[in-house]
Amino acid sequence: xxxxxxxxxxxxxxxxxxxxxxxxxxxxxxxxxxxxxxxxxxxxxxxxxxxxxxxxxxxxxxxxxxxxxxxxxxxxxxxxxxxxxxxxxxxxxxxxxxxxxxxxxxxxxxxxxxxxxxxxxxxxxxxxxxxxxxxxxxxxxxxxxxxxxxxxxxxxxxxxxxxxxxxxxxxxxxxxxxxxxxxxxxxxxxxxxxxxxxxxxxxxxxxxxxxxxxxxxxxxxxxxxxxxxxxxxxxxxxxxxxxxxxxxxxxxxx
Amino acid sequence: xxxxxxxxxxxxxxxxxxxxxxxxxxxxxxxxxxxxxxxxxxxxxxxxxxxxxxxxxxxxxxxxxxxxxxxxxxxxxxxxxxxxxxxxxxxxxxxxxxxxxxxxxxxxxxxxxxxxxxxxxxxxxxxxxxxxxxxxxxxxxxxxxxxxxxxxxxxxxxxxxxxxxxxxxxxxxxxxxxxxxxxxxxxxxxxxxxxxxxxxxxxxxxxxxxxxxxxxxxxxxxxxxxxxxxxxxxxxxxxxxxxxxxxxxxxxxxxxxxxxxxxxxxxxxxxxxxxxxxxxxxxxxxxxxxxxxxxxxxxxxxx
Lengths: 254, 303
Ligand SMILES: Cc1cc2nc3c(=O)[nH]c(=O)nc-3n(C[C@H](O)[C@H](O)[C@H](O)COP(=O)(O)OP(=O)(O)OC[C@H]3O[C@@H](n4cnc5c(N)ncnc54)[C@H](O)[C@@H]3O)c2cc1C
Ligand SMILES: Cc1cc2nc3c(=O)[nH]c(=O)nc-3n(C[C@H](O)[C@H](O)[C@H](O)COP(=O)(O)O)c2cc1C
Ligand code: FES
Description:
heterodimer, A: seven-stranded antiparallel β-sheet, B: alpha/beta, nine-stranded parallel β-sheet, 30% helix, binds FE2/S2 (inorganic) cluster
């Protein structure tokens, strides 16, 4: 069930100057969340940030009553979230949105870039329970922008591309050698910047592979009330916050 | 015990707190967060005769203490509302008030006619103030002859109370309020959003796909409050106050300015539980101030 809940800042893990993992804890139970779900976070004490900010749920711990987020500071809200005092209160509305399809796939590819890697931990966790073989393909500008690879390697093979060639293969994710004719993935999940997801979807389409993308449209409410977050699909405009954020790319008008 | 009931054109609302069209979906979206049956009424998302896809994305821009939207009345049309949506929301335990829209007068008439026979629908809100559609919409709300034409046409076919929703994008809102009163409106609701604009200085492009959009939220509250007060003093029909209401104090201010009921809009996005908190806050205020009927607040401004 969707819920409005107060948490407290428990811990920050700084990945670099702009990227961090924020862990919040609560006195009460944390809701069950599914891979792909997100939260609408109220940015505390920041009057110039009026609306909540949508952030994917990185992980939850039902024993410790914690929930965590991987955040890339890009503006006033995401910067402020990185500077709160330990124990300060953060109000979130969650779990929101649909989730990735998990359907006894044998061999899957998870392609992420930027903050789009956040839903992959919960996703990989679920896939592992289904004995699915997982390959991660993470794209970044340069070596210093590649995060969470230690976590991912617990679940599968991790491939990297960087635009400057400082880590992994040089180029964009879609230029990686994994995309050769011989590859045999039966499902691709992708989350990150739109151009990246579109390029991945194109490859998937060409090879008749099911592909799901998690979109990051701007949102006002996150609960399907305002219709601000829509994306065009073959069945008309759909709400990214309730009918998404995960879409089969065949549905999207890309 | 405080009696929170208010009377809008013969319809008794259990309290003055309602939710604004386009900010509360069809109500069900909030069922996980609040007891919907506590609300005075729900003004549901704007409805047109036919399916409308609305405007292109991006449809939203955050602003100082508010937001711009350019949704453009995305909805599946009146038949879908009556046959599919209404049956699932009519038992939410609160008054459901459709918000109707059209690009020509005939469209408003057809929608109103269809709603006339729907059991349980006791009123409609006639939106003549949507700034986000190319044809019709706000055009009906910013000049007197057009406002008269659409109001009297709907009056002829709809036999229950009509609440006309006014645009603030006019020189003198009392003029429009007076002519729609004359044309048969049973109440007025105000304000809809203010026409605004946002630009991304980095790309030199507008943020909204439609270039301009409607401004809502606390940024508009003082202007909305002034307009409610002016209209309250200009007409005899009840006024529903809207614009930047974030808490019970804001709601009480609108009632003191002359609003019989209020609509909570953008605040629902920030706190999906805010509407119920406002009801509790009004009750608290009345109790503390020895007011036994919330309706006694209406127009209680001391000059
Ligand atoms: C479903 C969903 C899940 C997301 N998950 C994560 C996540 O796990 N981690 C994470 O760091 N970010 C995530 N985002 C993106 C995040 O919501 C935005 O980065 C954030 O809202 C920006 O807020 P701000 O106040 O920091 O930026 P602002 O000051 O509002 O804007 C700064 C810049 O960021 C851009 N921006 C604003 N909103 C968005 C947006 N929704 N998407 C992309 N760019 C935006 C603006 O165009 C502007 O250029 C997610 C977005 C969605 C919709
Ligand atoms: C996203 C959004 C969609 C809206 N859609 C409608 C609509 O369909 N019909 C209508 O009459 N008003 C619509 N409005 C206007 C609101 O009902 C209300 O008049 C306005 O937002 C001012 O109130 P607020 O400041 O409390 O939000 C919309 C407002 C927003 C923010
Ligand atoms: S953000 Fe409001 S409907 Fe999706």
